[in-house]
Amino acid sequence: MTTETENKKRSHAELMELMGKTLSEYIEAPVSEEAVRRIIDEKLAELPVQKLEVTLPDGVTTEVESPHKQLTDVIELVKQGHNNILLVGPAGTGKTTIASDLAKALNLEFGFLSLSAGVTEAHLFGRILPQADGAWAYQSTRFVDVYENGGVFLLDEVDAADPNLMVSINAAIANGHLSNVVNGKIHQRHPNCILIAAANTYGLGADAQYVGRNPLDASTLDRFVLSTTFVDYDTDLEKRLAQGVEGAESLLDWVWAIRSKISEYRLRRIASTRVVVNGLLALRAERSLNYIKTMFLQSWSKDEVAKVESL
Fold it and tell me: 118: number of CA atoms within 13 Å, CB side?
């Protein structure tokens, strides 16, 4: 049986990961934050705690609660000696969670940065800023700290990054040292620095679903040869979330079928775990599955709806 403290830790972590700012989408009446947290706390308290036990090279054993099912795949890559790993998969599959849990499993610090449009070398390598006394001083970043001192750093959305930024990152990934153009220093890579890159595509450019993605340079992709893992939705987690909710089995069947159709017809749509979580909230509020379907499909075109209307 889980303790109250364990339940609270899990509730807050999963609340932020799964719910975001869309907690009330499927409920007509306004829902207060307190009410939503209570619902999530109650639901998470019902879940059996799954733990992954990891033995580190120095013999120390750590545990990770409720890990993503593919965390073991990434840990295996680390054990093989890979310290550059690429996670590829649709939005909402848990790539960020895997990177965070890897840090927990290895008892390392964790940092991350989304490489969306507008992110420059300064966000990664630091800045020279004025001080109170009028002098100028170098301000480091989480990336540089992890690079020098060890830890797990997630470079998220690498297939949305500026190509010039990726050129700067490439050298740091491959050479074991970072030549910092901001402060003129050479930063040596710590042996326990693990860099995780996450993308929605395999770096070959935009596709029908992710139209804003950039092709990654061959030299970038070469950094992750034999250490690229496809991350799929964790249906086991979705099953655990659905336990005890009336009508949840039909909801899961429908979401999984929608995903299959999205893949089959290459639709620019996403049916992530958040659909399951928000759908469960709606069911608990005594909304019907048809209501959930209508809310989910309301922005779809007639052609898109026609492809899934039999579900």
Answer: 1
Cα separation of 192 and 150, whole Å? 5
Residues whose CB is less than 8 angstroms from the CB of residue 301 and which lie 6 or more positions away in sequence, other chains included:
none
pLDDT at 172: 87
Tell me the domain boundaries of the chain: 4-47+243-308, 51-230
Return the pLDDT at 1. Answer: 38
Mean pLDDT of 170-188: 89
Give the pLDDT of residue 4. 45
What is the rounded average pLDDT of the residues 50-63? 70
State the pairing for strand pair 228-230/84-88. parallel
Give the H or E element holding residue 9: helix 4-18
User: Which pLDDT belongs to residue 307?
Assistant: 93
| pTM of the predicted structure, to 2 decimals | 0.74
Question: Which DSSP string do the residues of 251-285 spell out, in sequence order?
Answer: HHHHHHHHHHHHHHHT-S----HHHHHHHHHHHHT
The Cα angle at residue 89 between residues 196 and 143, in degrees rounded to 5:
20
* Fold held by 51-230: Rossmann fold (3.40.50)
Tokens 């775990």 -> residue = 273
> Between β-strands 186-188 and 177-179, what pairing exists: parallel, antiparallel or unpaired?
antiparallel
Q: Which two tokens stand for residue 58?
A: 């120095």
3-state secondary structure of 199: strand
Give the rounded percent of residues in the chain with a pLDDT score beyond 90: 46
125 and 181 Cβ atoms separated by less than 8 Å: yes
Helix or strand run (H / E) with residue 169: helix 163-175
Q: In whole angstroms, how far apart are CA 144 and each of 103, 121, 124, 183, 193?
A: 16, 11, 7, 12, 10
